[in-house]
């Protein structure tokens, strides 16, 4: 699908061979704050997740896509979650795994592709994201793509023995 192809990356469905990539991400404690994860995932659970990843977006209310470069290396994940067909909105989450792949424009390109897909193919009216206080890279990524801060959830997340605020951002398809 051409709508999911950019100049430097493309978005694709999860494949069985992504098990190692998923396992590394889901069990990296440094990334748990981003996904509100508290426990590691077994390979077995992730294999079951992969087996069911083909299920319809309207049924499971989420879509996880792999961000891949044109050397076919998985470099990250981008998600639509809490898909709400009735109200025409969904949440967005993005992760670039390796620090060396960050700040290269891959996240920006992936977000642009997903926004375009969400508005033009899924006919969503709006997207939202939640960004933890102090995550300036994500704040810059989303605000530079037109997402607006519309609220703050005070002391929302408890991480490293401290409460952090979480910002709610929205992008409305005009």
From TrEMBL:
<dbReference type="InterPro" id="IPR016181">
    <property type="entry name" value="Acyl_CoA_acyltransferase"/>
</dbReference>
<keyword id="KW-0808">Transferase</keyword>
<dbReference type="Pfam" id="PF13302">
    <property type="entry name" value="Acetyltransf_3"/>
</dbReference>
<protein>
    <submittedName>
        <fullName>Diamine N-acetyltransferase</fullName>
    </submittedName>
</protein>
<feature type="domain" description="N-acetyltransferase">
    <location>
        <begin position="9"/>
        <end position="169"/>
    </location>
</feature>
<dbReference type="GO" id="GO:0016747">
    <property type="term" value="F:acyltransferase activity, transferring groups other than amino-acyl groups"/>
</dbReference>
<dbReference type="InterPro" id="IPR000182">
    <property type="entry name" value="GNAT_dom"/>
</dbReference>
